[in-house]
Amino acid sequence: MTKLTILTLPDKRLKTIAKPVTEFNHKLQQFAKDMLETMYEAPGIGLAATQVDKHIQLVVIDISEEKNQPLCLVNPKIIKKDGVQIHEEGCLSVPGIYANVKRASTVEVEYFNEKGEEKKLQADELLAVCIQHEIDHLKGIVFLDHLSPLKRKMAMKKLEKEAQNSD
Ligand code: K2U
Ligand code: ZN
């Protein structure tokens, strides 16, 4: 297994729009395993391929306490959204910054697993937040992009300050 390097803002590669996966082969399945290992190690409950500078439509998620319920969503599409929820979010690509983000409270997602099998999933609460957060990454969107310009500016200033302090 390989631990992958996670990009952090202000790296512009995080704004890249991911391409659909067309080949479900051993290489993709190994990449999904490496993504899960990197996510558990971070630690996080989700990770998008964009964040490790691989611009394909693949995200991994595991919100279970025991870290034993991994999900791999390839070419995910939200086909239904309902309600509104506000949840505090962080991001492995935006270290040390947390903010409330408004998102749909439930989503229905069509996707393929790493073997190329078609799947459909209904999610609510934290899983719905995570799925929307990760699919945003595949569109080059980070959670700060949902904030007001003032809040986003304040968050970027804090990020820059923390980056200077850690140099
Ligand atoms: O995309 C990422 O960086 C992974 C996020 C996913 C996430 C953010 C906000 C809300 C739900 C999911 C990381 O897992 S952030 C770290 C974290 C860990 C536990 C709970 C919430 C956030
Ligand atoms: Zn994130």
Fold and architecture overview:
This protein is of the alpha+beta class. It has a single domain (12-166), classed as Peptide Deformylase (Alpha-Beta Complex), CATH 3.90.45.10. Helices cover 29% and strands 26% of the residues. The chain is built from three helices and seven strands. It has helices at residues 26-41, 125-138, 149-166, and strands at residues 46-48, 58-61, 71-82, 85-89, 99-103, 106-112, 118-124. Strands 1-2-3-6-7 form a five-stranded antiparallel β-sheet. A two-stranded antiparallel sheet has the order 4-5. Strand 6 (106-112) and strand 7 form a beta hairpin. The protein is globular. The mean pLDDT is 97. Bound molecules: ligand K2U and zinc ion (ZN). Zinc ion binds next to helix 2.
Give me some keywords for this one:
alpha+beta, 167 residues, binds zinc ion, Peptide Deformylase, binds ligand K2U
Sequence-ordered SSE layout with sheet pairings:
Blueprint: H1 26-41, E1 46-48, E2 58-61, E3 71-82, E4 85-89, E5 99-103, E6 106-112, E7 118-124, H2 125-138, H3 149-166
Antiparallel strand pairs: 1-2, 2-3, 3-6, 4-5, 6-7
The site of ligand K2U has 15 residues, from β1 and α2.
What does the radius of gyration come to? 16 Å
**What name is given to the CATH topology?**
Peptide Deformylase
> Mean pLDDT, nearest integer?
97
Which structural class fits the helix and strand makeup? alpha+beta
Q: Helical element count?
A: 3
Q: What portion of residues is helical?
A: 25-40%
- Total of domains: 1
Fraction in beta strands: 25-35%
Q: What kind of sheet is the major sheet?
A: 5 strands, antiparallel
Stretches where pLDDT is under 50 for at least 5 consecutive residues are: none
Q: What's the CATH class label?
A: Alpha Beta
H/E element order: HEEEEEEEHH
Q: What would CATH call the architecture? A: Alpha-Beta Complex
Q: Looking across the biggest beta sheet, what order are the strands in?
A: 1-2-3-6-7
Task: Spell out the CATH superfamily.
Answer: Peptide deformylase
User: How many strands appear in the DSSP assignment?
Assistant: 7
Q: Whole-Å distance between the termini?
A: 29 Å
